[in-house]
Fold this protein.
Amino acid sequence: MSTVASPTKLEVVKYGHPVLRQKGVRIEKITPEIEQFAAAMFEAMYAHHGIGLAAQQVGRAWQLTVLDVRGVTDRPSTLQVDGKETDPAAIMPLVLINPEVKPIGETAVAAEGCLSFPELYGDVERPAQARIRATDLKGQTIEFSCGGLLARAIQHENDHLNGILFIDRMTRASKTELKPQLEELQAATKAALNTKK
Ligand code: ZN
């Protein structure tokens, strides 16, 4: 049920768009505009069957990302809140504002995709666990530790908030394999931006 007017549809920008390389500015106050923007981000993320979306990917360089890993059943996530093992579903859907992400322990290599790189998947090495501190949509501080897919997804989105893309962290083998498609995507995005001008 919702009494809020349906938010305007957001378009996901692709690799080659300059906003993807911008560091997000901190959000100091949760305004109705921010709340509506987060709702529109979820709508765009679910429409594209994504598990995470950063503000940069819909054209705003802000420190705001939305996630929901509940749809993925073959790649487990772990969550610890106040030191207790918790069902990750308990914090989904998840909005992270001005997140601070501290990696914990060993790294792991796994495949990643990104809504700004449609149909392209590559192996990325990242810390397997992370400690997160962020502000939620109510303006409250949330803190937790996570592992598995959730830790990977949050680190991927947090990178976006700092203008870093998964291709920057991709294994050399994956990046070499994807090089022709990456160049093609980048060129197509730039060409589309130029015709819009
Ligand atoms: Zn991404």
Remarks:
- Residues 24 and 61 are 4 Å apart (CA to CA).
- Residues 18-196 form a domain with the Peptide Deformylase fold (CATH 3.90.45.10).
- The chain has four helices and seven strands.
- The pocket of zinc ion is lined by residues 114, 116, 156, 160, 166 (CB under 6 Å).
